[in-house]
Amino acid sequence: MKKAEKPASPEQVPGSTAAFYCASGYQPEQSLGYLMRQILNALGQEVEQQLAHTGLTNAQWIPLFKLYVGRATTAAELARECNLDAGAMTRMLDRLEAKGLCRRERSAADRRVITITLTEAGLEAASEIPNVLSRVQNANLHGFSEDEFQMLRGFLRRILDNANTNVKSTMQDTLTSHSPGGSHAA
Fold first, then answer.
1. What is the DSSP letter of 9?
2. What are the residue ranges spanned by the domains of the chain?
3. Which of 69, 116, 132, 140 sits between 20 and 30 A of 122, alpha carbons compared?
């Protein structure tokens, strides 16, 4: 069996034109991941504060909003959209249902499928979310020009595309190395 290879250093990444990070002297607080996480945390706290009168937490408004904009209609879709496992989504839906914001119903066509609909109270609470999100994000973009905003969004999309490509590539490499005839074959 072949010994597992160490991950490539930034200098070894195929197609990479620059190594922005180096293991020696690495400072997490200067990394893009850290900065993006800090931004997401700050945005989430601000959105939660502005939605406090609705009783929604940061964890609760996200699935409620995804239902409101039609990104999901079933518990399984909502779990995927929110990056939650089925058990965590069930608990979240229990809380939202207890607050009278949504209703779960078995599909008449397929009894295994649980569809989720917003109640009148859920629709009312969710209708406020786009205004709050717009207000919070615009406040955090204070001082940016339209061109800077478009450039930032383009850079973030490129990072996301790279990340998604890297994840797919790593998954493919893992599948290949563990398949018959792959590098881990006996």
1. P
2. 26-137, 145-186
3. 140
